[in-house]
Amino acid sequence: MASRSARCLLYEKLYKAEHILATYIHEDAEFLEEIQLLLTELCGFYSSGDVKGDTLIHYGGCDYLGYLFPACRFFKEIILAEFLETRLQAARTWINKEPGAFDWSLAARIVCELEGNREIGIEKEESLRGKITKFIKCEANEDHPVAPKLPAQVDCVFSTSFLELVCTDVDGFCKVVKDMSSLLKIGGHLVLVLALGCTFWMCGTFKLPVLCLDKECVIAAVSDAGCVIKESKDIKRVNQTKYSVIDYDSVFCLVACKETNVQ
Question: For FRET with 229, which of 16, 18, 124, 205 sits at 20 to 30 Å CA-CA?
């Protein structure tokens, strides 16, 4: 079996979910406007009516549960797959309403407003808690992250704040996009959220490396994985004052439909 990648080991040692949430996601954080714009785009993807089904697997970013609120009413169950235990623990803490859980109520309220207040925030939070049925620990070997083994293909794979972290080069990135596509049924959907032009982000006092991606690379990888992009949005960075903590240029989000199986 291949050894754990150096990048993965570094993140396992230094990444703390509570530091990331406090810096980038907290409602008083400097990136709130970007979060609102991203939630708006994700709500648009799902409200089209095409991206729905029985099962969605959230690949990575398990401390970013707020980004699942737009999807939760369109799927019967959600599986969380993650390579960092600290992220899985952050998710469990919130789901179980344990002391110290991150407060996702603002994201829930934003999504409820975008959906025309079909639910109130508390109802949205309880809906998401009820949809999350299992946790899977991913692996990241010396070549590229490895998709979890599932008993059956799913209707949607959603990934945020994952590929840029554990992939060290474009080849590895393309391989894991194919891994994600392999989890999908024909006609299923791949939803990706990626930071473009990013080389690092700070987690507390630690500077963690990020794979620098551009839009053309992402589009090519999705196409090579047998998927056709239906909609995408490049959200340009709003806050220009926090380059000391992260140096991304924009957030690129897309929804693609799987049309063919690829090897």
Answer: 124
